[in-house]
Amino acid sequence: MPNRKFADGEVVMGRWPGSVLYYEVQVTSYDDVSHLYTVKYKDGTELALKESDIRSQSAFKQRKSQSSSSSPSRRSSSRSRSRSPGRPAKGRRRSSSQSREHKDDKKKTISETNLAPLVLVAFLEIPRKGKYIHQGEIEHSVKLRGQQKLKPDLEIARVLEQYSLRPRKEEKKKEEIYSEKKTFETKKIIEKASLKTIEKAPSKTKELEFGGRIGTFTLMFFLPATVLYLLLMCKQDDPSLMNFPPPLPALESLWEARVFGVFLLWFFLQALFYLLPIGKVVEGLPLSNGRKLQYRINGFYAFVLTAAAIGTLLYFQFELHYLYDHFLQFAVSATAFSMVLSIYLYIRSLKAPEEELAPGGNSGYFVYDFFTGHELNPRIGSFDLKYFCELRPGLIGWVVINLAMLLAEMKIHNQSMPSLSMILVNSFQLLYVVDALWNEEAVLTTMDITHDGFGFMLAFGDLVWVPFVYSLQAFYLVGHPTAISWPVAAAITILNCIGYYIFRSANSQKNSFRRNPADPKLAYLKSIPTATGKGLLVTGWWGFVRHPNYLGDIIMALAWSLPCGFNHILPYFYVIYFICLLVHREARDEHHCKQKYGLAWERYCQRVPYRIFPYIY
């Protein structure tokens, strides 16, 4: 392993990616695996640079002194020897006064055609091999250019027309202002081009989440065990935390081939609905290579077709509470399928091009990349596996499971109609699912689609965690019925409506602004410009707290649990989990946005100090 050349905290000169300019930076860390230095610029921007893109300050001082050591008078004399301006031309002899006027006009032409902005001149010149231009050398480069041969007439005319150059003797002050303006504009263009170069360049994942390799390995066993524990506890007459551990069933009772077949039938039925040529086709956000993938928006149509299929089964006396009787086996089948799917996804990602890998799942560690997802958008033809699993089998399956629990409650307790608590839980969560499917296009701007790869984390989350943990309240109410009064039900309904209003209006503001910031309907919103060209909203819901959609999520999660009463904490597991999940996501978003937006994010945080809970957090 090669030794590092620069120490942490050392001030060096770092080359800005995609350009030939070097800036003063400070080394903050070094990655022994990728051999990249993390450096921090004066404006707060942090980038990862190779050692070949970093120079010590002493080396630049030496180069600058060498470049200025050559004698201008010597070059001038050699140029005088190469031609004789005072020598008369063939034919008619010029007088001395005419010769002087001719030379003065020529000098004036030279001075006028070499007044291009300093930074622009430096970038028009192609650097030689291994040599880069330092900012301190740009002015010297311009002086040298003033002594070189003139450009062709057409090039001179183009430069004069583009920059409207004037003689220094006449308008020196205006020219200085003009030069500074062009330098600033050129630097902005360079920075934008460099940012695009950085986004396009594939890089290894340096910062590992979820506890790194050990943490992700543990989570692959801990998450299925948590689902199993929650479902077993709900089956107990007294689901108290003091009754730990719950009695474990026999291993052979956890698996049933018929149940696995029903799960496969459900999965491929949703895949069939996804492939139907109904619904509009939209483009997602640009990928790192500039390409935009196309997505068919027909999730709501799939939900309607699913409802029709379920209604047909109920009409022919199919007992839907079969789901309740084999709920544990369905969870095990879904877990097994998600593991097989994750293995397939990782194997196919090994052959994927570098630019199609996920920025958060390209660490080079098998366990970590397997868990977080190595490939960003795995597709079989036009069938997008991640996008399909994000909303279809698990989210629609969640509603079907809730309906099965409602029917099971009526059958087990010999009720002619479901309890008020069960109706509230089913209604609130049905609204949430229908909203997600109706606004399906909004999911294309989430981090799950744009940043996270498709691996075990999302496969297990979409196919197991969402349908079997999010339906925990309905599953709990089947074995532990809870009676609530109408005034209490009305108060809980109002609470859910408040949470839903915050959630939906905040997401609508964000998605509309991302799609078209110049929309006249958004004229009332104010934003902070950033170096990426995107803006940060500082009014509306996003000026209230930094993550108002998370606030709405937590309020709704509380409303879903309140119908279960307060006898046990188990129904409130979802609220506790949701708070922990959103706090983790919020911390990840904060870190990602700070790296992406730099000083603009710091200004945004000063304008909006609260993260999720106003005046609290």
Automatic annotation (TrEMBL):
Residues 56-110 are annotated as: Disordered. One of its GO terms (biological process) is cholesterol biosynthetic process. CDD domains: Tudor_LBR. Keywords: Cholesterol biosynthesis, Cholesterol metabolism, Cytoplasm, DNA-binding, Endoplasmic reticulum, Lipid biosynthesis, Lipid metabolism, Membrane, Nucleus, Oxidoreductase, Phosphoprotein, Receptor, Steroid biosynthesis, Steroid metabolism, Sterol biosynthesis, Sterol metabolism, Transmembrane, Transmembrane helix. Pfam families: ERG4_ERG24, LBR_tudor. InterPro entries: ERG24_DHCR-like, Lamin-B_rcpt_of_tudor, Sterol_reductase_CS, Tudor. This is Delta(14)-sterol reductase LBR. It comes from Probosciger aterrimus (Palm cockatoo). SUPFAM superfamilies: Tudor/PWWP/MBT (SSF63748). One of its GO terms (cellular component) is nuclear inner membrane. Residues 4-62 form the Tudor domain. PROSITE patterns: STEROL_REDUCT_1, STEROL_REDUCT_2. It is a multi-pass membrane protein. Pathway: Steroid biosynthesis; cholesterol biosynthesis. PANTHER family: DELTA(14)-STEROL REDUCTASE, DELTA(14)-STEROL REDUCTASE LBR. Its EC number is 1.3.1.70.
